[in-house]
Amino acid sequence: MTGKTAGRSLGTVGIAVLVAAGLGYPILIVTGRVLSEADAAVFLTFWGLVFGVGSTLAPVEQELSRLAAVADVAGKRVGGTAVRTVAVAAAAVGVFGLLVLVPPVSGRLFGEYSVIALVALVSGLAFAVQFGTRGLLIGFHEAKAFGGLVVTEAAVRIVLLGLFLLLGLNGVVPLAVAVAAGSFAFLPFGLRARKHLHVAGDAEPWGVVARRILVLMLSAGLTASVLTGYPAIVKLFATTQGELEALGGLFLALSVARVPLLLLSPVQAMAVPTVVRLSQDEEGHGKLRALLVKGSAGAFGLAAVGAALGWLIGPWVVQLLFGAKFDVPGWVVAGLVWSSVLLGAVMLLAAVLVARTEGGKVLVLWAVVAALSVLVLALAPGDLVLRAVLGLVVAPTAGAFVAMAFVLRPGVRAETSTG
Which pLDDT tens digit goes with each residue over 363-377? Predict the structure, then answer.
């Protein structure tokens, strides 16, 4: 891929991500406007669970984009390893979804709306195929189709949401169905991705495929615990109705801050084949290292600026979008913005490790982030909202330093063979 072609691809995907992000916000705005604070907390727990599963499946997209990039360099199609990767991922999601369906678990998470645990399971299974499709498309430079899929996913949700509102269906369950429907956006793009796949081609053993993708999914599951699944974790610590109502505003503000990160997966998927290709020679490796150093430094500067703006105008923005009933202090928004920017940086650095097939280091990285967030949430002094925000600030800050230590080690390059 030439630099000009890569630039066009990045521009296409960037525009698609921005459009999809814009289409994602109306659902959150509707949530704040039509649901009570308690019901909003339940719906946002579902939202966090669904997109948490989506985040857990992001390695499927990255792994298939890596396989596609290696195959493309060799002038081939992707073999059966890609199919086995998606199958293993879908099986893992199915097991997790069945656990969430267990009444004590679904009741604790969703209360009287426990039926949406089933909606989450169906959505997760579709996501497995969707991320596989996206990985194939971007790995073979199908930037337009890839961008179309990203936009279609968000558009399906917003169209269905509008239809439900016209029909007067504005409760927790219809909103959940609208969100889940986006997971099937891969259907119109399946044939385009299929042409890059040789199902009967050489495939790695099931055990090898399972070990690799499950380690990466476990790492991504830990990522999801601080990315979109955090509301579900925090909700487990809520013991009173007052705490649950206080969390409604926090969860809405967190969801707004996290929407750009939900759409960072396409950038991660592009980063993996880019790292593979830059690692072909010493000059490319040097450029990559310089880019990583500058990007890491810039992330902290951007986080500081974003946190300051969040403190100044964040409470006003939250009330403008969701109504005066959600009173979120400026320090809360500042912490969420700082957390989101640094999490984005950690996610991109982790994609470099994926390109190098260093799944063990990816797992260690996200284990540190997830463990710190829960430890602070459980042990820090103060009320639940304060502990939740502190957990989100401390964990990605430490994770950024761990990620930089892993990625910037000298003499390490991406895997460039089919293995």
Answer: 899 899 999 999 999
d(CA 268, CA 263): 9
Residue 395, CA atoms < 13 Å, CB-side half-sphere:
31
177 vs 212: CA distance, rounded Å: 32
3-state secondary structure of 79: coil
Tokens 């909103």 locate to 175
Q: How far apart are CA 256 and CA 235, in angstroms?
A: 18
The pTM for the full model equals: 0.73
CA distance 301 to 264: 19
Asked whether 243 and 384 are in contact (CB, 8 A), the reply is yes
Query: b/e map of 132-155 (b: 16 or more CB within 10 Å)?
Result: bbbbbbbbbbbbebbbbbbbbbbb
CB 225 within 8 A of CB 53: no
CA atoms of 367 and 361, how far apart (whole Å): 10
Distance CA 62, CA 408 (A): 20
Q: Residue 410 has what DSSP assignment?
A: T
| The residue count for the chain | 419
**111-152: per-residue pLDDT in tens?**
889 999 999 999 999 999 999 999 999 888 888 999 899 999
